[in-house]
Automatic annotation (TrEMBL):
<comment type="similarity">
    <text>Belongs to the cytochrome P450 family.</text>
</comment>
<dbReference type="InterPro" id="IPR001128">
    <property type="entry name" value="Cyt_P450"/>
</dbReference>
<feature type="signal peptide">
    <location>
        <begin position="1"/>
        <end position="25"/>
    </location>
</feature>
<protein>
    <recommendedName>
        <fullName>unspecific monooxygenase</fullName>
        <ecNumber>1.14.14.1</ecNumber>
    </recommendedName>
</protein>
<keyword id="KW-0560">Oxidoreductase</keyword>
<dbReference type="InterPro" id="IPR036396">
    <property type="entry name" value="Cyt_P450_sf"/>
</dbReference>
<dbReference type="InterPro" id="IPR017972">
    <property type="entry name" value="Cyt_P450_CS"/>
</dbReference>
<keyword id="KW-0408">Iron</keyword>
<keyword id="KW-0492">Microsome</keyword>
<keyword id="KW-0503">Monooxygenase</keyword>
<keyword id="KW-0256">Endoplasmic reticulum</keyword>
<keyword id="KW-0479">Metal-binding</keyword>
<keyword id="KW-0732">Signal</keyword>
<dbReference type="InterPro" id="IPR002401">
    <property type="entry name" value="Cyt_P450_E_grp-I"/>
</dbReference>
<keyword id="KW-0349">Heme</keyword>
<dbReference type="Pfam" id="PF00067">
    <property type="entry name" value="p450"/>
</dbReference>
<keyword id="KW-0472">Membrane</keyword>
Length: 488
């Protein structure tokens, strides 16, 4: 027998073994399309529009189905009922974080967003406490957001009503809020260190939204052995790691345990408690700070950018919001969170913006923390779970004509604001976004302050304004556009 024939037999046996193991595994899991060896169902998923692919597959296989992303299965939850049953009714069992190889390479399971078990619970609990009780009796987070809203207005005035791309300016505002929470101080919009930080964060979101990163996550061997934009992503995260390490060292040198100034100080005080088993380590501090920046800067700035695009496209909506601002707030004081309850139309518009843009179509992957029987299927411990937030936010029974931008989705027949359990832009269950409260505050205060001070004008015909995302993978990225901020 020649070496070539022997090699062929070995490869054939491995191929058949792979098929047998896959078939045996699939019998216990929910139904789904037949996967190919090694590549799984990757050819049945449009990496530029994953939401559309999941919608089409759910029509064939139902609200709970299995999709092979590479060689590993993922259970997909499609529709409000299945998402609620898993993430809320069985919240503890579905509270794990699914593997994302690109992030696993960077974070090593540390921080808030990508950690699991005891580490995740400790980091999440601490971060929630820090965000809720921040300042130890000093300035509240609302004060900081209001200050940044005023700075944002001053920057927009410098455009002199000329057409501009608002991406950078809108990114600076939420980034500075996070800076003030994590580092104590905000930065001037022209500060070189700040510009480097902003550029790094912007690049990361752009790269993460490309189909190439979806391929890297499905075939992790690529990360180590092939060139590509994932290399740039890894370099950017290395820059951020060194940036936060330098800030930590600065804080250690000036720390007063009786007078904590910010998130880093509070974390350093917890680190100083001489517990060898503590989760409060230098690395966890660096990655937790990084998670706050990544989650608190780009998601909010992208939502703000998309908000202005939709308000440009729908001037009748903008006019109604400005009328409500005039009636409730006026022109001579800054908007506050107390105003929101008296502004039902504005509240409905903000909710509809987040529902319509569907910023994180599949949120971040979950994983089951133990073997669980779910809808008569056995899902083994560690299995990745993908919850389609798009299927909830665009449910046509809850939101008639879900593909249409309509603030009426959140208003009752009397024009009062109407809550909806289907409003899940921050995910739901145990893994709901830590910064939800801050993000909602920023969206309200930034947008109302902008509309209090400026009329919005498009330099192109409104018919030519496209509101469709240019990428719909990890994040729904809005198209580039120009806008004029005309002082009122």
């Amino acid at each position: 027998m020649t070496l070539g024939v022997l090699l062929g037999l070995v490869l054939s046996c491995l191929f058949l073994l792979s098929l047998w193991r896959q078939s045996s595994e699939r019998r216990k899991l929910p139904p789904g399309p037949t996967p190919l060896p090694i590549i799984g169902n990757i050819l049945q998923v449009d990496l530029k529009d994953i939401s559309k692919s999941l919608k089409n597959l759910s029509k064939v296989y139902g609200p709970v189905f299995t999709l092979y992303l590479g060689r590993k299965p993922a259970v997909v939850l499609y529709g409000y009922e299945s998402v609620k049953e898993a993430l809320i009714d069985n919240g503890e069992e579905f509270a794990g974080r699914g593997s994302i190889p690109v992030f696993d390479k960077i974070n090593k399971g540390l921080g808030i967003v990508f950690s699991n078990g005891r580490n995740w619970k400790a980091m999440r609990r601490f971060s929630l406490m820090a965000l809720r009780n921040f300042g130890m009796g000093k300035r509240s987070i609302e004060d900081r957001v209001q200050e940044e809203a005023r700075c944002l207005v001053e920057e927009l005035r410098k455009t002199n009503g000329s057409p501009c791309d608002p991406t950078f300016i809108l990114g600076c505002a939420p980034c500075n809020v996070i800076c003030s929470i994590v580092f104590q101080n905000r930065f001037d919009y022209k500060d070189k260190d700040f510009l480097n930080l902003m550029n790094n964060l912007n690049k990361n979101v752009e790269i993460l939204s490309t189909p190439w990163i979806q391929i890297c996550n499905n075939f992790p061997a690529i990360i180590d052995y092939l060139p590509g934009r994932h290399r740039e992503l890894l370099e950017n995260f290395t820059f951020l790691k060194h940036y936060f390490l330098a800030k930590m060292i600065e804080h250690q040198e000036s720390l007063d345990i009786n007078n904590p100034r910010d998130f880093i100080d509070c974390f350093l005080i917890k680190m100083d408690q001489n517990n060898p088993k503590t989760e409060f380590t230098c690395e966890n501090l660096i990655f937790s700070a990084g998670d706050l920046f990544a989650a608190g800067t780009e998601t909010t700035s992208t939502t703000l950018r998309y908000s202005l695009l939709l308000l440009l496209k729908h001037p009748e909506v903008t006019a109604k919001v400005q009328k409500e601002i005039d009636h409730v707030i006026g022109r001579h004081r800054s908007p506050s969170m107390q105003d929101r309850s008296h502004m039902p139309y504005t509240d409905a518009v903000l909710h509809e913006i987040q529902r319509y843009i569907d910023l994180l179509p599949t949120s971040l992957p979950h994983a089951v923390t133990c073997d669980i029987k779910f809808r008569n299927y056995l899902i083994p411990k560690g299995t990745t779970v993908i919850a389609s937030m798009s299927s909830v936010l665009h449910d046509d029974k809850e939101f008639p004509n879900p593909e249409r931008f309509d603030p009426g989705h959140f208003l009752d027949e009397n024009g009062k604001f109407k809550k909806s359990d289907y409003f899940v832009p921050f995910s739901t269950g145990k893994r709901i976004c830590v910064g939800e409260g801050l993000a909602r505050m920023e969206l309200f205060l930034f947008l109302t302050t902008i509309l209090q001070n400026f009329n919005l004008k498009s330099p192109v015909d409104l018919k030519d304004l496209d509101t469709s995302p240019v990428n719909n993978g990890f994040v729904s990225v809005p198209p580039e556009f120009q806008i004029c901020f005309t002082p009122i």
